[in-house]
Specification:
The chain has 441 residues and is an alpha+beta fold. The chain has helices spanning 2-11, 28-44, 61-74, 92-111, 122-135, 139-142, 165-174, 191-206, 210-239, 247-250, 255-270, 279-290, 388-394, 399-402, and strands at 19-23, 47-54, 78-83, 115-117, 148-150, 155-157, 240-241, 244-246, 295-300, 304-309, 312-317, 326-328, 332-334, 340-344, 354-357, 367-369, 376-378, 385-387, 407-409, 415-418, 422-423, 436-440.
């Protein structure tokens, strides 16, 4: 206990009137942490907010919530809780974790708290590191989790990281600290439990202080990661901007920096969800960069799409499915891609954003639609047609843009114009006869 109190006072520097949100399940670790903060409350006039998530998956869930509510009432601690009513189809543990931390952050904002504290301890760190070594991860991922995470307006602090589970439980029992036991922690169907029940006992037999070795390992990797990240920060703006990697500039870098840039980007995207990313995902992205294909894409967890478009690699939330459209052209036609087609009386330009048509050579009305499989367009000065797909490739239109790009056709579905890209044999020069001018804006 003294180690934790010393860390909170001298390293975290708890100060008078601090507001602290504590993630609390009611288990031995959570109640140990709450007890430590109660010891400091009197001296520093702390305001403690106990945050409990009822996961609603065990018979005991409701009674555990009541236990914690009563404890907080008896000790003058603010109690906040939420109950998860429904889960989606994603990984249960990852989904529950996201719900918990969203709830915690909402409370941090509500109470203007300086800290969010959780009861992760030394055994948790060992389990996390081992799981990530086995499944693969980034350098940052292999370090497990940080003692302190600075989230800007508040910090996440894990002050029990120096202690083992055995020490915490023995202290609770010796000092009459009440807690509840989650029996699901003993079910070997869960990956973490198998590490906890089978591997940790062996490691502790080899060295009862093995948690200190893993903490040192974690801190060492974090130190190396910080050094490399400082180097990356000097370089990354030259190759990565607005969520896009410039492949030519990327290829000029040392392979270690290339890989670390990809890891750095993923760490920034996934943040505390980094546990769902492993080295396979990093390798997929690097393979995509080195691929000879001009256009290709891969999907990562949480609907993150990584797309290659010639010399660029872009990272984005997976785009929603594009809905096919076929719209009759009017004087001003708003398009699903946020552009407009406008019929004008005069226009000086003769670029691909302007189309002139002779009504005698086509059949009205005109329509604008998305592309169809096998679409072809008859081109000027060419005796024949060309596939729309090939035109898109020649003009380096990305895969994501192709399916939603507008195509202007007449009533017989003859392709007149691909706005901004290419004109057909049906379009006219300024010197030729025409009676309709359409502008793409």
């Amino acid at each position: 206990m003294d180690t934790v109190l010393d860390y909170l006072v001298n390293s975290i520097k708890i100060s008078n009137n601090d507001i602290i949100v504590i993630g609390n399940s009611g288990g031995p670790d959570s109640m140990f942490l709450l007890t430590a903060l109660l010891k400091l409350r009197e001296k520093y006039n702390l305001k403690l907010v106990c945050a409990h998530v009822n996961h609603n998956v065990r018979e005991e869930s409701d009674s555990e919530q009541v236990f914690l509510l009563n404890y907080c009432n008896d000790h003058n601690i603010v109690f906040e809780t939420m109950k998860i009513e429904n889960y989606g189809d994603d990984n249960f543990h990852n989904q529950a974790r996201n719900i918990r931390y969203n709830f915690f952050e909402d409370l941090v904002k509500k109470y203007d708290a300086k800290y969010l504290m959780t009861a992760h301890h030394g055994d948790d760190l060992i389990e996390t590191i081992l799981m990530r070594i086995v499944r693969g991860s980034t350098l940052k991922g292999y370090s497990g989790f940080d003692k302190v995470v600075d989230n800007g307006f508040y910090k996440v602090v894990r002050p029990l990281i120096f202690l083992t589970k055995d020490y915490i439980k023995e202290y609770d029992d010796k000092n009459g600290i009440p807690y509840v036991i989650d029996k699901s922690n003993f079910k070997e169907k869960y990956t973490r439990n198998r590490y906890r029940l089978k591997i940790l006992p062996f490691l502790k037999e080899e060295d009862k202080n093995v948690h200190e070795k893993f903490l040192k390992y974690s801190e060492t990797l974090e130190e190396y990661d910080r050094f490399i990240n400082n180097e990356i920060k000097k370089t990354i703006n030259k190759v990565y901007k607005d969520n896009i990697i410039d492949i030519n500039k990327y290829m000029e870098l040392d392979r270690l920096l290339q890989r670390k840039i990809v890891e750095y980007i993923l760490e920034d995207i996934y943040k505390e969800d980094l546990m769902i990313i492993n080295d396979k995902h990093v390798n997929l992205i690097i393979d995509l960069i080195y691929s000879k294909k001009s256009n290709s894409s891969i999907c990562l967890p949480h609907n993150i799409e990584v797309s290659k478009n010639y010399n660029n690699i872009s990272f984005s939330k997976e785009v929603k499915e594009v809905i096919d459209y076929n719209i009759e052209l009017t004087n001003v036609t708003k398009l699903p891609n946020n552009h407009i087609l406008k019929i004008v009386n005069e226009e000086e330009s003769n670029n691909n954003y302007v189309c002139r048509i002779d009504c005698d050579e086509i059949k009205l009305p005109l329509y604008v639609r998305t592309r169809k499989l096998g679409d072809k367009m008859n081109l000027k000065k060419i005796n024949g047609s060309k596939k729309i797909k090939d035109i898109f490739i020649d003009c380096k239109v990305s895969i994501n843009e192709r399916d939603k790009w507008p195509i202007v056709v007449d009533s017989e579905d003859r392709i007149i114009w691909i706005p901004g890209i290419k004109k057909s044999k049906y379009t006219k020069l300024k010197s030729e006869k025409y009676d309709i001018i359409i502008k793409y804006e």
